[in-house]
């Protein structure tokens, strides 16, 4: 049965120049980025199946990819922001402690007996 209310065509990248720019920023080939957005590959039982996505599916896939990038970016920022404090102070002083006390400029040199609470009072 075919649902006539939906577009039956596979998604197509309309702006190849933008695709190439984004792929260059991400450090991947434009064809790999195009495939990541336009196709969905899953294991079905013991076989690998690839589905050509319609424009709505490709849009959902693009959104999932963006969420993954933001998640990875936050994890990287959190790790690299906490690294200097881990070397000089108690491991309990982390990014969340810095956020809770944004005007305390000397958090990395705080003594290990200092405790911070959330939310700030």
From TrEMBL:
One of its GO terms (molecular function) is cytoskeletal motor activity. InterPro entries: Myosin_head_motor_dom-like (IPR001609), P-loop_NTPase (IPR027417). Gene3D superfamilies: Myosin VI head, motor domain, U50 subdomain (1.20.120.720). Keywords: Actin-binding, Motor protein, Myosin. Residues 1-121 form the Myosin motor domain. Transmembrane segments: none annotated. SUPFAM superfamilies: P-loop containing nucleoside triphosphate hydrolases. One of its GO terms (cellular component) is myosin complex. Belongs to the TRAFAC class myosin-kinesin ATPase superfamily. Myosin family. This is Myosin motor domain-containing protein. It comes from Hypsizygus marmoreus (White beech mushroom). The lineage of its organism: Eukaryota, Fungi, Dikarya, Basidiomycota, Agaricomycotina.
């Amino acid at each position: 049965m075919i649902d006539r209310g939906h577009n039956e065509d596979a998604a197509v990248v309309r702006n190849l120049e933008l695709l190439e720019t984004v792929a260059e920023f991400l450090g991947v080939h434009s064809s790999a980025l195009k495939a990541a957005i336009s196709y969905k590959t899953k294991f079905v039982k013991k076989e690998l199946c690839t589905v050509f996505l319609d424009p709505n599916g490709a849009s959902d896939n693009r959104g999932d990819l963006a969420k993954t990038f933001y998640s990875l970016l936050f994890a990287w920022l959190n790790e690299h922001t906490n690294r200097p404090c881990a070397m000089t102070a108690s491991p309990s002083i982390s990014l969340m402690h810095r956020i809770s006390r944004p005007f305390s400029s000397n958090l990395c040199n705080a003594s290990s007996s200092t405790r911070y609470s959330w939310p700030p009072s």
